Amino acid sequence: METATKSNNHIGRKISRVRELRGMKQEALALEIGVSQQTISEIERSEVVKEETLEKVAKALGVSVEGIKNFSEEAVFNIISNTFHNTSSDSSTLIASSLNYQPTFNTIEKIVELYERLLQSEREKVDLLKNK
To answer: I need a labelling partner for 100 at 20 to 30 A (CA). Which of 2, 52, 74, 132 fits?
Structure first.
């Protein structure tokens, strides 16, 4: 049981998980706080991290120091679970609420814009080949 308690308070592992969830590599975090990637690796292996270092890491990750200290996988899973599940027994309500994503841009315009850029790129390639 002691190892379970230790792993729950292992600040380095918590930093690692938060970093991974934020989609950041060790190298990027290292660059952000002005240390080497090896230093980040050492921090993530450490059960205890200096408060000053923890503050820099938290700022770079865009979270609070308390957020790192109180981080738990269970909390993340609960948030995900509560986000994607509806208490209603009506499955159509669940599907409707899950699919109720409204982008802030016109998707058709974006598709046309992308198509036009691809078409222009192909025209440029053809012109280059003709000129050779």
So the answer is: 74
